[in-house]
Design goal:
This protein has 139 residues and is mainly α. The protein is 50% helix and 12% strand. It has one domain (4-136): Sufe protein. Chain: A (Alpha-Beta Complex), CATH 3.90.1010. A hairpin with a 2-residue loop joins strand 1 (56-63) and strand 2.
């Protein structure tokens, strides 16, 4: 399995293939199409990520000492971003997530691609992932 850093580098290389922002947006939307089906019973406020312009749900799944997620959004760009974040951080020990260098995500240069509102949403998604990792780190 790839490390968190290797996954981030993979997405950076993928985004670097595109010259303009619209092609990068299309890449994000294509990632949304890779999302797994979201169980409807989790589509409620207790799993909503606050701070996102779109509705985003993030549900922790802790099994065999690994943290994974169910996730969804009602907007394609947000769904693409949560799909990428969950691909990077899911199926890992919570301590590994907690100890990772979250500034590595800056390599993706989302600050130049996304609007301030969407950047805040991505930051909120990342904060929720960190929060879940913290809550399961003692288990």
């Amino acid at each position: 399995m790839k490390t968190i850093k290797e996954k981030i580098e993979y997405y950076k290389e993928s985004l670097d293939l595109f010259d303009d922002g619209m092609e990068k947006y299309k890449f994000l939307i294509d990632q949304a199409k890779n999302a797994v089906n979201f169980p409807e019973e989790y589509r409620n406020d207790s799993f909503k990520v606050s701070g996102c312009q779109a509705q985003v749900w993030l549900v922790p799944i802790f099994k065999d000492s690994k943290l994974s997620f169910f996730y969804d959004s009602d907007a394609f760009i947000s769904k693409g971003m949560i799909t990428i974040l969950c691909d990077i951080y899911a199926n890992r020990n919570p301590k590994e997530i907690q100890n990772s260098d979250f500034s590595l995500l800056d390599m993706l240069q989302l600050n130049t691609l996304l609007t301030p509102g969407r950047r805040n949403g991505v930051y909120s998604m990342l904060e929720k992932i960190k929060e879940y990792a913290e809550s399961f780190s003692d288990k």
